[in-house]
Amino acid sequence: MRDSIVVRPITVWSVTPPPSLVTTPIRAAHVEPKPGPLPPPTNRKPLVSTTSDHTTSAVPGIDGRLRLLLIEDDPGDAFLVEELLAESGLDVEILHARTLEEARRRMTGRIHCVLADMTLPDAGGLDLLREVLKLTGRAAVVVLTGLADAHLGVRAVALGAEDYLVKGEVDGPLLARAIRYAIERKRAEESERRLVEARIVSRENARLERGLLPVPLIDDDSLVHHARYRPGRRRALLGGDFYDTVQTADGSVHLMIGDVCGHGPDEAALGVCLRMAWRTLVLAGHTGGELLSILNTVLVHERRSDELFTTVCMVTVAPSRRSARLHLAGHPAPLLLNEAGVNAAPEEPAGPALGLPVDLVDGTLWPGIDIELGASWGLMLYTDGLIEGRIGQGSARLGTDGLVGLARTAVQEGASGDALIDTLVSRVEALNGEALADDVAVLLLATRERT
């Protein structure tokens, strides 16, 4: 037998209705006066949609009309639902499905709420509710049935329904309110679910990416190592930039910073691959142009696109700590901080970025540059994300010269070590007018006297 909405004689309440006629939904119980049911339905075409003549806003945050899918096989009950909602003043568009199969066809991502009976020709009970919940996605589900069973209502809510209403015990305002509340609860649940998922993913990414960031291999108390990493990806810890520092058995300290073109997890993975390859090659005794030639081969074989290239700046500090040899592969020159002030290291001679076909590459493509460091010094290696920010409202970029000016000012103000890096990044962002879009990596190696 089909469920039906109970029709009782109209009663006019002068004060307050008796407590026996208040509603009994399982979640978010509603207590409202019952003005009496509507007259029995007359012959009328099946329900397609309805809008109240005296509309009110449905749910905050929903633009336009609220869209409701009514799953009800009884035309009379469907008509009464339409009338109740029209009476409530809710601005709602109703799509009517008489079977579960029809509901599957009518369900779209534009539906805000599903009002479902629990007895249909092709399904019924909790099995029906499970199928409805599968197809609704982000839409709220409210059960409207003639089965006044509290235990069934609890189980329905436990499965995922937002509310359980009994036909004959609801009026227009109560039904409209139940729909509004169900949509808000569903929205809150979805927000909480996304937040939990984002936190889980963020923690997993944090553990992975922190594990992939390098630990400098330095055994020299006269040197101090500082590094900062700011990936351009939202909520990421690791981007396409990479860096490393390794001290070898002869006492030399090797520094490297690189930038894989592009942004995202693929570029980050390639950056990690190149960093690990670089460290392995250094520990195996490779240096200079020979090392960059092998690193170029690794890049060519590991990249996902032939257009992908990588810039690299590599410095080898001599065991005496008073000189260094610089190799540039399409990368900005580092800053040298010493008794002469703050200056950019020479940019020539330099070689191309990595990514050339292997058969066109040999070690001579990347010549070295000898640098005198002095007794007290600092070497700051950085990626181009630090110098490509805008200065003012125009299209002009900061560039290496602009970074040198900012660094000189910061050093004169007494900044050094981590404070120097943080000051530079914050002032570059201030000139840019917002956070830098590109990945930013900064590596500072300095004698202890400079910190």
Automatic annotation (TrEMBL):
The modification 4-aspartylphosphate is found at residue 117. Pfam families: Response_reg (PF00072), SpoIIE (PF07228). This is Response regulator receiver modulated serine phosphatase. It comes from Thermomonospora curvata (strain ATCC 19995 / DSM 43183 / JCM 3096 / KCTC 9072 / NBRC 15933 / NCIMB 10081 / Henssen B9). Residues 67-182 form the Response regulatory domain. Keywords: Hydrolase, Phosphoprotein. GO terms for molecular function: phosphatase activity. Residues 30-56 are annotated as: Disordered. Residues 34-43 have a biased composition (Pro residues). One of its GO terms (biological process) is phosphorelay signal transduction system. InterPro entries: Bact_Sigma-Reg, CheY-like_superfamily, PPM-type-like_dom_sf, PPM-type_phosphatase-like_dom, Sig_transdc_resp-reg_receiver.
